[in-house]
Amino acid sequence: MAELHADREGVIVADGHRLHYEYFGQGDRETICLLNGLAMHTRAWYGFLPRLLPHLDVLLYDYPGQGESSAEDVPYCIPSIAGYLARILDELALERVHLVGISYGGFVGLDFARQYQNRLHTLTLSGILLSHEALFEMYQDVSLRFYRGGAELFELYTHYMYEKIFGESFVSAFRDRLEPMRQKFHERYRDKRHVLIRLTEAQDPFFAALDARLPQYAAIRTPVLIMAGAEDRAIPPGVQRKLTAILPNARFEVVPESGHVVYLEQPDVFFGNLLRFVRSKSVEF
Question: In terms of DSSP H, where are the helices of 166-249?
C-alpha cells in the first residue's frame, strides 16, 4: 500500500492544548470523522483509510495526550474534547460530518452529538455505553491502578489489556501480532502514563453528569448505528444495547466473532456496515 499523506494538516490551540488534525480529500464530498480510542492516534487509522477514501473525505484528530497533540499533565474534559472537534470543523469550513466513535471515541462522539447534533449526518458507535455499570467502573478503577502503579505494574497491564479486549477468533488467528502491538503500546506510553490517567479520569465527571444530561442525549435525532462485538468483555453487547433505549433513532448490530475492537477484528463487517449506513443516512439500510 502506498504511503498516505493528508491533503491538509494543521493544529488548533484551545485551553492550552495544541491539537493536531489531518484531512484527506478535496472537500467536494461528504466527510467522515474517525474518533480515536483512548490509546490510539491518527496513524492507527491509516491501514483502514483505503476502505473509505474511494467514497468519502476523511478527518482524523488527536485528543490531548495523543499522537501529535500536546500532552499536558492537567485534567482533561470529554465535553471539551468534543468541542475541539467543532473548532476543527470550523477551521476546515465543514458544516456536517459522519462521525464514528469507537470505545473512548464513543464518549466523545456521544457528547459531540449532545452539543452539536446539527453538525452531524450520522453517528456510528462501537464498544461504548451510556449507563452506570458496576463492572465497567471496576474495569476503569483497575486500569487506573495499573497506570499509577509504576513501571513494573504498567508493563504487566500491557499484557492484561490485550487479553481483555480481543475476541477468541482474532487472538487465535493473529496471536503472533499481539507482542509487537503490545511493545508499541508500552513504548508509546511508558514515559507518559499521565496521559492514560488523565483521559481515564475524564470519564468520572462524564458519568457524574450522565443522569442530568440524559434528556439531552434522548433529544439526539441523528441516525445512529451501534456495532457491538459479540465477545466484547469490556462492554458486553447487552450493555451496549441499552443505548437504544436512550437514543431514539438508533439501530443495533451484533458482530459475531469479535471482541471490543470490532473495526480491527472484523474490518469487512465493520466498514461494510458503516458505508451502507452512511450512504443511506438512515437506521433502515
Answer: 168-189, 193-201, 203-208, 210-218, 237-241
